[in-house]
Amino acid sequence: MRSDSRSRHPVVARLGSRVLEAVITLWLLATLCFVLLRAAPGGPFDTEKVAPPEVQAALDAQYRLDQSLPMQYLAWLGDAVRGDLGPSFQYPDYTVNQLIGNALPVSALNGGLALLLALLLGVTLGVWAALRAGGWTDRALMLLAGLGLAIPKFVVAPLLVLLFAVTLHWLPAGGWGEWDNVVLPVIALALPNIAYCARLTRASMLDVLSADYLRAARARGLSETRLLFAHALKPALLPVVAWLSPALINVVTGSAVVEQVFGIPGMGRYFVQGALNRDYTLVLGVVLVIGALIVAINTVVDALRGWMDPRLEG
């Protein structure tokens, strides 16, 4: 019984530490975003046509803009802790919770499919290149991977529209609601990640294939297929698993461009529109939700790495 309780204490301590780190990270992120938004010139109701003073005063009172900045911050933070992200300035008929509730599944579908595609193709191409290291296949794949990393998403997305929508008429140029609307955005988000995953997998697989324990296993007569899947693949994927966290951030930041190009009602598009229109509550809500997702994914990735390599635990 004592040994069981002792083994549970480090787990509980690590869990509590990670929860505390997550709360502090989200609080710092939200505070920094709040300060930067309010420091930017202009306001949410600055238009070419000046509103009458009584109308402007009513708007300021409705959205707490008549209060001091510390009071606005404390009021917003208190509401956010209770799960209320406030009303949207740009979409007065909707709350931020409603807008994010509609946009999050769209972005999650695009981002999840893009990461899945990047993992499947990136790992496959990386292993294939490593097994043919030095050959023309390896050089061709790494050349394509280099091009994939060099071309930014704001160039890839319009090129995909020009080729598959305008020229070939195979897929729609934008919109949302049908399965074919998903194809081009997912490819645009996945291409740079496929390239990086392929290069990372190749380098890791080459290191593993040259390890002493694999030479010994090969000398015992094990087949190359068994060596690959039973002994080489799992340790070779450790760097790829560690890469999932920055890959997620890459997908999130890239979604702002991709969703704008394809007219997708996702989190990235709302973030861009909210920033341009000084919709403080919408931008803060998007940042807070995305930050919470990234923290949660990082925790899952750390746990997965610990399961794959117990030496990382402790």
From TrEMBL:
> What cellular-component terms does GO give this entry?
plasma membrane
Spell out the subcellular localization from the entry: Cell membrane
Q: Where is the ABC transmembrane type-1 domain?
A: 104-305
Alphabetized Pfam families for the sequence: BPD_transp_1
Q: Which InterPro entries does this chain map to?
A: MetI-like, MetI-like_sf
Alphabetical list of PROSITE patterns matching this protein: ABC_TM1
Tell me the protein's name. Binding-protein-dependent transport system inner membrane component family protein
Please report the organism this UniProt entry assigns to the protein.
Lysobacter antibioticus
The taxonomic lineage of its organism, from the top, reads:
Bacteria, Pseudomonadati, Pseudomonadota, Gammaproteobacteria, Lysobacterales
